[in-house]
Design goal:
By secondary structure, this protein is an alpha/beta fold. The chain has 2 domains: about 210 residues, Aspartate Aminotransferase, domain 2; about 110 residues, Aspartate Aminotransferase, domain 1 (Alpha-Beta Complex), CATH 3.90.1150.10. The chain has 16 helices and 15 strands. A 7-stranded mixed beta sheet has the order 4-10-9-8-7-5-6, with helices on both faces. A 4-stranded antiparallel beta sheet has the order 11-12-15-14. A hairpin with an 8-residue loop joins strand 11 and strand 12. Helix 3 crosses helix 4, helix 4 runs parallel beside helix 11 and helix 12 packs parallel to helix 16. The radius of gyration is 21 Å and the shape is globular.
């Protein structure tokens, strides 16, 4: 524990999916809420009591616990849901029980799909997450996964989405990525799904995994999927800088299906101390200073990506609109793998991760690129000049690699 604290204290953290939660969030994890089983959902009595203080809260999901004496846990869970609705200014139903983003994605699929159904998502080598169809993941094993890609410059190929819907007639279209550095046009994808749906005879569900960009959406520097997507999932630890955990949002008509997919289908007792941390994270995301933070995350990422371009590196898509970008070594440093660069930088106190790039020729354990993100160091107060200095340090280390 001491060694990990020391690492975090003295290393430069550039993993795009990691961040530093506040003391208040960490304190919430250590409360008595960590000790009790709470299988199920808040009681009708707790909902009525909660609505006395928050009359604009509308309950749309399941009710009833399998354990007694859960009143305070019920009120906490209702408050957490309510606060996340405020963060994203939405009337979507919220389920805050998922243990992780992967759990949330599995539960969204299970809520309206059957094993063997066809799902269209971004291909993994172009930036998607494992739960978007990797053959070694539950998603690739349970469902018939088909993929859309990116164009020659690394941008999402929206025409390909339309054509793939016509070709494969998927029940669901997954939107979102873990390694894509540009704005995703949710409005356009909604139009594409609706237009293609008219031709295939039904409208596929639109599911947005916003785990990476949720903090940017909350901060107003990235378009919101709410109003377009049928389902939205997120984590709370990345650009939202909370504790680790998952969230599911859905249109009210799917609330009971989502709740049943979370419990009892996929999970048992919820981790109420994590839900307490998620509630505190939501409170922090509503503060004015969080918008400033989200803005700086993007400013810093743009500055760092531009510096790498100036130094002759191949930045996928030529830059970034969000909190991350990819360096592709396949042309500029063909003898280097992402793993080699990751391991060498680790020796110098700089942490990032190897990552596949478009048209990847190497295995996921080696890769031809690395992913760089700015959320964690921005939390620690880094500005553009600091990230530019780190970029030059990385360049110096890479130049000395054999």
């Amino acid at each position: 524990m001491y060694d990990e604290h020391n690492r975090e204290e003295h290393c430069v953290e550039l993993i795009a999916s990691e961040n530093y939660p506040s003391e208040a969030v960490r304190a919430a994890l250590a409360t008595p809420f960590c000790m009790k089983y709470t299988e199920g959902y808040p009681s009708k009595e707790a909902i009525e009591e909660f609505q006395k203080d928050f009359p604009d809260y509308i309950h749309t999901g399941n009710t009833g616990r399998y354990y007694g004496r859960t009143k305070f846990f019920d009120l906490l869970e209702l408050y957490c849901r309510y606060m996340w609705q405020k963060v994203f200014n939405t009337d979507y139903h919220v389920n805050c029980q998922p243990h992780s983003g992967s759990s949330a994605n599995m539960e969204v699929y299970a809520s309206v799909l059957e094993p063997g159904d066809t799902i269209l998502s971004m291909s993994l080598q172009n930036g998607a997450h494992l739960t978007h169809g990797s053959p070694v993941n539950f998603s690739g094993k349970l469902y018939n996964m088909v993929f859309y890609g990116v164009d020659s410059d690394g941008f999402i190929d929206y025409e390909d989405i339309f054509n793939k819907i016509l070709e494969y007639k998927p029940k669901m279209v997954v939107v979102g990525a873990s390694a894509y550095s540009r704005i995703i046009d949710y409005s356009l994808i909604r139009e594409i799904i609706d237009k293609a749906g008219e031709q295939i005879g039904f409208t596929p569900y639109m599911f947005v995994d916003m785990a990476h960009v949720a903090g940017l959406i909350a901060g107003g520097v990235h378009p919101s999927p709410f109003g377009y997507a049928d389902f939205v999932s997120s984590t709370t630890q990345k650009s939202l800088r909370g504790n680790r955990g998952g969230l599911i949002f859905c249109k009210p008509e799917y609330a009971k299906k989502v709740d049943s997919a979370v419990f009892p289908y996929a999970q048992g007792g919820s981790l109420m101390n994590e839900i307490a941390g998620k509630a505190v994270t939501a409170e922090e995301a509503l503060r004015p200073e969080f918008k400033t933070y989200a803005q700086m995350v993007v400013v810093n990422a743009k500055a760092m990506a531009e510096e790498f371009v100036k130094m002759g590196y191949d930045v996928v898509t030529g830059g970034t609109d969000n909190h991350m970008f990819l360096l592709d070594f396949s042309k500029t440093h063909p003898n280097l793998t992402g793993k080699m660069v990751q391991d060498e930088l680790d020796k110098h106190g700089i942490t990032l991760n190897k990552n596949s790039v478009p048209n990847e020729q190497r295995s996921p354990m080696q890769t031809s690129g690395v992913r760089i993100g700015t959320p964690a160091q921005t939390t620690l107060g880094y500005g553009p000049d600091d990230f530019i200095k780190v970029a030059h340090k990385i360049d110096e280390i890479i130049k000395n690699m054999k």
